[in-house]
Backbone:
């Protein structure tokens, strides 16, 4: 083999590496939720503060429905301030943020709400019925529901300010 | 304070590792001992810091310090003490720190063993080892920090993945990582050999034991993984060709090839280039395995998407592969072998064939594993490659490998004469063919099963022939039978250690063949007091009981199993409900036997305990696989004993 040709050996590895790099662009577990586009199922819960909380009461507003748990680290810890900021920024423009705490204990959940100073309504889902209705696979998951009560998009994993704003603005513009 | 102290220790270790990498390299280049010594001190410091960091993380788990985010994510107050320790490496960040710690421990052993002998190679070995450690430390400081502070501190943690609450989880990852990291040592020596142009046999003989040890731990890791899958996951199998299993299996295949091909280089000065290529491939595949598990690129039951860590691993993999191949190209002229293949029927060519088959198997596994990615990149479709592909491609290759396992160790070097073949193989071939006929007559229907079992008998016969002949030779010198046998094992420990390892692999083969060919199962719903029958067993459903455990709720079914012989057996498979998991976890109950295992999995049940669905399996010969692991262990110990000087 001549001197130049042998340098083809390292080059041979490049296509494989390129293929693996391509892998970052795809997500094998990205499975679209069949609920998107459908009416959001109704629920009636009692918040940690003792108030009643139902989806029906928010008809006519854009609802950001967030499923969380106090043991969900770090994602729920990352997004709790995002939700609170979003709530404060958009509440006057007809947006409701609703938190549903699943598979949790009341003490730990209330500490979470205190620690993050959450002011939007949060309710436990004691029988787990709401999370089953919404097909929640893990926490956190967030559903963006339009004024007519239809689920328009779903976000899996921690929200960022950008995702929150984009999801809400799109529905406000309708 | 723990997050800050731990993070500080890791950053210090990273800086020290980088310093050591450079300074040992300078020492290697200039030949000045002071630099090498300084690199050595850096390596010792890295080991000390990593040991400290690992101990600190373990401590944080033991005291439930939820200010460490990793602790909060992988334990909760209900986690039993024992699993709080295994939880340390129950997820990504902890695995990485364990991994790096093992690498630094191996580096320490390299320093202790080789600093005097392999003088020219040693500084570069240190450089390569430290640079690999530095990479893992970089991962621990940027994309996957085990010591990230969680604020505010939660009242309780999330808890360990319930599937990992099993004793197999203390040994399986540890063995697997010892195997993965162990291949870093032969890799470092190979790189040092290329850099210093000392591509002769020195690096091979120095790393022989390292390779066997790494290979052994990898084998053990795979076997324990199979055992975990068998008795925890409740699907009755031990191997599913899942991408992450494949990721550990590929370096095993190429590592096995390397173990065999080094013998040809030692004996015949051939295959220098091939050996280095194999060791590079094996080490790269261990990195690829981690990339696959942790990047979320390919869907797998084991994989978790973990942010940017995949990018780091891919970049490091690219650096390793490209650097190693470039060095290989640079040293092309030095790597030409001196020996030549004299004849097709010779030990060299059998070993070559063995290598070709092992690498082909590794390639098909690689191809099958990344095919979904390839399909999506080229055709934009999502596909998955399942067991049928892997089985149909690999079974013939493995049968061929078993055949070679019988031929390789006995056939003559250079050129096998007809007499040599007759002398060594006449009886084993006859016995093997007779065995095939007997198995057929006994009603073994599957051709593959007959072949696998007959080949196994053939290989056992070759080993017996060899051992009997060597024993006879010693007896002629006046030794008695048992001392003669013992003496053979001790004096030719490398050869006979290899044979014992082969026997271990054969046991695994029998177990796999038997369980694939003869296992039976049934799934049905029984009312309380009702019985069913399967393969000579009667199973009666006696009732359900509920209990509250420290971190879950458990429903246990009681089943009485009788088979007409011996006392009835009570099995209690259960379902465990963890509050934070949607789906309950099966708790399998079983009775293992040499011939067959009785294996029960509880399915759905009526809340009042009036009826329950049960999956009943009678799995044949599965225990032989685990026995194979024990024999493998004995063989490895024998093979790595220091070689005695032969009595003249």
Residues:
């Amino acid at each position: 083999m001549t001197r130049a040709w042998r340098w083809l050996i390292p080059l041979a590895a490049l296509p494989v590496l390129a293929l693996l790099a391509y892998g970052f662009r795809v997500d094998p577990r990205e499975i679209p939720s069949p609920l998107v586009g459908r009416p959001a199922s109704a629920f009636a819960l009692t918040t940690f503060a003792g108030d009643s909380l139902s989806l029906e009461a928010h008809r006519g507003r854009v609802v950001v429905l967030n499923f969380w748990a106090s043991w969900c680290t770090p994602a729920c810890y990352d997004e709790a301030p995002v939700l609170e900021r979003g709530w404060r920024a958009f509440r006057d423009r007809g947006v409701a943020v609703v938190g549903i705490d699943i598979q949790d204990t009341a003490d730990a959940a209330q500490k979470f709400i205190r620690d993050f100073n959450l002011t939007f309504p949060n309710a436990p889902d004691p029988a787990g019925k709401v999370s089953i209705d919404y097909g929640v696979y893990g926490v956190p998951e967030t559903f963006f529901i339009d004024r007519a009560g239809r689920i328009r998009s779903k976000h899996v994993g921690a929200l960022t300010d950008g995702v929150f704003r984009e999801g809400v603005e799109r529905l406000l513009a309708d | 304070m723990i997050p800050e102290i731990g993070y500080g220790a890791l950053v210090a270790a990273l800086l020290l590792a980088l310093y050591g990498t450079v300074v040992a390299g300078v020492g290697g280049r200039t030949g000045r001992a002071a630099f090498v010594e300084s690199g050595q001190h850096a390596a010792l410091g890295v080991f000390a810091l990593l040991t400290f960091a690992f101990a600190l993380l373990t401590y944080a788990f033991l005291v439930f310090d939820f200010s460490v985010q990793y602790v909060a994510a992988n334990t909760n107050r209900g986690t039993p003490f024992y699993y709080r320790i295994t939880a340390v490496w129950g997820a990504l960040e902890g695995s990485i720190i364990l991994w790096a710690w093992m690498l630094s421990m191996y580096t320490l052993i390299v320093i202790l063993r080789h600093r005097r002998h392999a003088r020219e190679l040693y500084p570069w070995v240190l450089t390569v080892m430290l640079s690999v450690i530095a990479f893992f430390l970089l991962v621990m400081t940027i994309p996957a920090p085990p010591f990230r502070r969680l604020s505010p501190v939660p009242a309780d943690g999330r808890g360990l993945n319930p599937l990992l609450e099993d004793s197999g989880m203390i040994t399986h990852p540890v063995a697997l990582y010892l195997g993965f990291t162990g291949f870093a040592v032969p890799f470092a020596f190979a790189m040092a050999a290329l850099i210093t142009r000392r591509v002769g046999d020195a690096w091979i003989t120095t790393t022989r034991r390292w390779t066997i040890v790494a290979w052994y731990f990898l084998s053990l890791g795979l076997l324990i993984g199979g055992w975990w899958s068998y008795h925890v996951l409740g699907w009755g199998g031990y191997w599913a060709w899942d991408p992450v299993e494949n990721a550990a299996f590929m370096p095993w295949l190429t590592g096995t090839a390397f173990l065999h091909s080094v013998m040809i280089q030692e004996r015949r000065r051939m295959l220098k280039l091939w050996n280095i290529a194999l060791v590079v491939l094996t080490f790269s595949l261990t990195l690829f395995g981690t990339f696959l598990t942790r990047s979320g690129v390919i869907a797998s039951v084991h994989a978790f998407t973990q942010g940017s860590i995949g990018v780091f691993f891919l970049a490091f993999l690219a650096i390793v592969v490209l650097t190693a191949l470039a060095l290989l190209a640079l040293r092309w002229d030095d790597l030409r072998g001196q020996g030549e293949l004299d004849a097709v029927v010779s030990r060299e060519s059998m070993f070559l064939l063995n290598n070709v088959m092992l690498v082909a198997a590794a390639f098909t596994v690689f191809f099958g594993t990344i095919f979904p990615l390839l399909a999506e990149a080229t055709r934009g479709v999502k596909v998955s490659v399942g067991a049928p592909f892997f089985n149909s491609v690999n079974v013939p290759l493995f049968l061929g490998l078993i055949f070679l396992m019988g031929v390789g160790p006995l056939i003559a070097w250079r050129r096998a004469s007809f007499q040599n073949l007759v002398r060594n193989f006449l009886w084993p071939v006859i016995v093997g063919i007779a065995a095939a006929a007997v198995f057929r007559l006994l009603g073994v229907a599957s051709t593959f099963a007959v072949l696998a079992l007959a080949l196994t008998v053939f290989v056992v016969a070759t080993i017996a022939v060899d051992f009997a002949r060597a024993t006879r030779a010693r007896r002629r010198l006046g030794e008695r039978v048992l001392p003669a046998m013992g003496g053979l094992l001790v004096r030719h420990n490398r050869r006979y250690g290899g044979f014992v390892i082969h026997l271990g692999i054969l046991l695994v083969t029998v177990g796999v063949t038997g369980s694939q060919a003869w296992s039976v199962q049934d799934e049905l719903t029984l009312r309380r007091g009702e019985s069913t029958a399967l393969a000579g067993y009667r199973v009666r459903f006696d009732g359900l009981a509920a209990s509250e455990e420290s971190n879950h709720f458990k429903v246990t079914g009681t089943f009485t199993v009788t088979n007409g012989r011996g006392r009835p057996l009570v099995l209690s498979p259960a379902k465990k409900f963890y509050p934070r998991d949607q789906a309950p976890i099966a708790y399998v109950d079983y009775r293992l036997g040499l011939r067959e295992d009785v294996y029960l999995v509880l399915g759905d049940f009526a809340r009042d305990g009036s009826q329950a669905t049960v999956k009943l399996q009678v799995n044949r010969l599965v225990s032989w696989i685990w026995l194979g692991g024990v024999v493998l262990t004995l063989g490895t110990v024998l093979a790595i004993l220091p070689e005695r000087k032969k009595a003249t």
